[in-house]
Structure formats: C-alpha cells, structure tokens
Amino acid sequence: MEFRSCLDVAMALGLLDSAQLDELQVRLAEGEEMISRYAEAGMSMTEGCSLEQELTTIKQQAQPTMAQLKENDLIVQRENEELAQVEAKIAELQASRELIIGLRDHAVATDAELKSSANQLLKVAAEKKKALAERKLIRARWLADMDSEDIAWRRITCLIWEMFSEGI
Length: 168
Known about the structure:
Order of helices and strands: HHH
Helix content: over 70%
C-alpha cells in the first residue's frame, strides 16, 4: 500500500489529526523530492559515463582527421611561403622593367636629340661648303681679273670677299 493511503487510513481511524497529517504530507513531499533528485543524479552519472565514453570514441575517430588537418596546414604554410617568394620576384622584375623602360626612353630622347644635332650640323656644313665654293669662285674670278687688270672689278670682288669672310 502506498504511504499516502496509509496516512488517509490513520486519519480515518483517528490516529492523526489534520495538523499532524499536513506535517507528514510536507515531509512526504520533501522525501519524494529527495528521491527524485537522487534518481536524477544517478541518471546524470550514468549519462556522464556514457558521454565520457562517447567523447573518447569521438576523439579517437577525429585523430586521423586532425592529423590530416595539421598536414594540410603545413602544406598551406609552405605554399604561402612560396607565394611570398614569387611575389617578391615579381616585384623585383617589375622594378627592373621600369628601370629598363626609363633607360630606353632616355636613349630614344638622346637619339632624337643626336639626330636633330646631326641634321643641324649637316645644314651648317652644307652652307659652309656652299660659301667656300662661292669664295673659291670669287677668288678664281678675282685672280683672273687681276690678270686683266680690271680695277673696278677687283674692288667689287674685294667687298664681296669681305662680306663673305665676315658672315662665315
């Protein structure tokens, strides 16, 4: 028979008054609560053992995956180092390229300046050659005229000779 029904029988027989019954019912509730907590603690302990076993199993199953993950991390680290080296080499090559382009541009500019200077020198040389040819012609005429003793012609050629001499 259940304890509550025993209390009801004791009350009916007059062995307990209502205050005593209330006190016993409170104690009964406290006892039931303690039993419930004890049962829960037992279940938790059982579950805890089970969880520890599951955790151990999971750790064992995860070990190969963790090892693979560590290996992958090492591979990624090596690849990052190689990538950094390649990027450094690219930067170095780009700097060299910029230097070469700068030197080439300078050489092109210098070439253009040299061509311009050469053209100017050729023009000046052509003008001097022409002037020298004219001088030779004038001198030859002057010498020829000296033989003919034409004084007026000599004066004109002397003036022209002086003009060309000053200009060149």
